[in-house]
């Protein structure tokens, strides 16, 4: 077996490889208080410089003490060429101020963001040269709560709200999340304002089937978009591999419990009745496949 074959057999490293923090100390999609999902479109001519910049920034942020915050960098697969993503996990919104102070006052961070890495372009620093103007988007994801357990059943401790891992009964050794999953699907959907509760009930019912039938192979978490679009919901569905994703597709086509979700009347008769489809705005459910960016050894 040659070296190339050996690397392929080992598979991609999960996002936890981007951080020096021990696995049991990492914040991730399952145990954090809130998450910032950030994306940006790289300019094609500066795609390499942009990836190098963000890889350096991620590595530096993760080795700094920002009250446990974790920064993960992903490539978008089967979507837009050279659009990159971050999942940034925090304990509370107050922790965000720590990173703002770092960006404004830390000399090494300022150098990374402002130094000239694209010398043939004389217009701006590397940030302005590498990223398409207006393409950087941020959405704040807060674990959905109130539908799966009583608010007083759990002590959130330092976290802003109960973590998403409480949404599933999967054991600790089965849980997949943003730090350890080789493949993540970020799904978004706009719930109808009129049927916002029914949309959430369906979201949990679908998620429960995923977590029950694919334990150890897939884990799904549901989030609210906060300070953004009202009733836009987010799932982070983490897979052990592409085969697990294929298993989910097969279950949705063939499994009796999944098929029953499609015909179940989530909307009460006094509201006109209807399946889950009536509770979402048509055309708004979208999936983005995220693959952990593979940092070079020593980066």
Keyphrases for this structure?
alpha+beta; eight-stranded antiparallel barrel; 299 residues
Characterize this entry briefly.
With 299 residues, the protein is of the alpha+beta class. The protein has 8 helices and 8 strands, in the order H-E-H-E-E-H-H-H-E-E-H-E-E-H-H-E. An 8-stranded antiparallel barrel has the order 1-3-2-8-5-7-6-4.
Word description of this protein:
The structure is a single chain. Helix content is 29%, strand content 21%. The chain has 8 helices and 8 strands; from the N terminus they run αβαββαααββαββααβ. The longest helix is centred in the C-terminal third of the chain and has 18 residues, at 196-213.
- Put simply, the count of helices is 8
Globular, elongated, flat, extended or rod-shaped: what is the shape?
A: globular
In angstroms, what is the radius of gyration? 20 Å
β-strand number:
8
Question: Structural class per helix/strand content?
Answer: alpha+beta
Low-confidence stretches: 1-9
Distance between the termini: 27 Å
Characterize the largest beta sheet: strand count, sense, and whether it forms a barrel: 8 strands, antiparallel, barrel
The fraction of residues in strands falls at: 15-25%
Strands of the widest sheet, in order across it, are 1-3-2-8-5-7-6-4
Fraction in helix: 25-40%
Give the SSE string. Answer: HEHEEHHHEEHEEHHE
Mean pLDDT: 88
């Amino acid at each position: 077996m040659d070296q190339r074959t050996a690397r392929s057999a080992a598979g991609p490293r999960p996002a936890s490889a981007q951080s020096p923090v021990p696995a049991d100390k990492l914040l991730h999609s399952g145990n954090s208080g809130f998450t910032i999902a950030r994306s940006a479109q790289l300019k094609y001519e500066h795609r390499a410089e942009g990836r190098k910049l963000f890889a350096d920034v991620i590595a530096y942020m993760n080795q700094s003490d920002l009250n446990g915050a974790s920064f993960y960098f992903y490539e978008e697969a089967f979507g837009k060429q050279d659009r990159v993503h971050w999942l940034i996990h925090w304990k509370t919104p107050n922790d965000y101020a720590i990173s703002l102070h770092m960006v404004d006052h830390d000399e090494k961070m300022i150098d990374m963001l402002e130094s000239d890495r694209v010398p043939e372009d004389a217009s701006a620093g590397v940030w302005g040269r590498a990223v398409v103007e207006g393409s950087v988007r941020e959405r704040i994801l807060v674990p959905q709560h109130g539908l799966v357990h009583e608010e007083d059943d759990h002590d959130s401790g330092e976290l802003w709200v109960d973590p998403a891992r409480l949404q599933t009964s999967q054991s600790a050794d089965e849980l997949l999340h943003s730090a350890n999953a080789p493949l993540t699907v970020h799904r978004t959907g706009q719930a109808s304002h009129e049927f916002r509760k029914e949309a959430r009930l369906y979201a949990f019912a679908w998620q429960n089937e995923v977590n029950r039938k694919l334990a150890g192979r897939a884990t799904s978490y549901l989030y609210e978009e906060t300070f953004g679009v009202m009733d836009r919901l987010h799932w982070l569905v983490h897979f052990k591999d592409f085969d697990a994703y294929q298993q989910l597709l097969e279950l949705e086509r063939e499994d009796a419990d999944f098929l029953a979700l499609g015909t179940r009347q989530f909307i009460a008769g006094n509201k006109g009745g209807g399946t889950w489809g009536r509770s979402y705005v048509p055309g708004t459910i979208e999936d983005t496949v995220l693959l952990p960016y593979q940092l070079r050894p020593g980066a």
